[in-house]
Design a protein that fits this description.
about 210 residues; Rossmann fold; globular; binds iron/sulfur cluster
Length: about 210
Amino acid sequence: MDLNEKNRNRLLAGKIIKGLESRNMNGYFTETKEEALEKALSLIPEGSSLGWGGSVSIQEIGLKQAVMEGNYTVYNRDNCSTPAEKREMELKTFGADYFLCSTNAITEDGILVNIDGNANRVAAIAYGPLHVIMIVGMNKVAKDEQHAMLRARNTAAPINTQRFPITVPCKETGSCVNCKSRDTICCQFLTTRYSRHAGRIHVILVNENLGF
Ligand code: SF4
């Protein structure tokens, strides 16, 4: 990300944060991964329970590592050896104090768009954990809801499929064909346009490219 892009992001961030606030969510702007990590940890009191959904961004800023080394109860789905164990961990995460994740896209006026296969991530964003903390690189900002969905479907999802041992068309072609493959990761779509509960959803914008 070059200086001009970073300058533009600084100007745009205020609009996104106002949009989030108008939707009963909290927004913050940080310049670096390190600042984002510090901000996230400042929002999570020691002793809290927490878990996460699939997210490259929380890994990239070091948040997973930091909470695993800190004084928290961590429901770590990454270390589960069987699908049953993983499901149990995800169900525990629904009752956690904090859920850590990113978003597939965010609009300039603060709407969050997410696509999920297993749906534990979109379910936890919508309901369950008492708080949601999202780490969002400014590369995920889209003009409006239509562009956010386009980004989630045509950028985030086809890149995401590269990470998994699955058989879907976009993994071979790089382009979404709206498949109904058994392995599709595009099963559930969540648009978060408002949070019923004040102080539940916190979005930490980062002036770097994070995730995809
Ligand atoms: S719908 Fe299918 S082809 Fe499109 S991104 Fe999802 S998995 Fe890939």
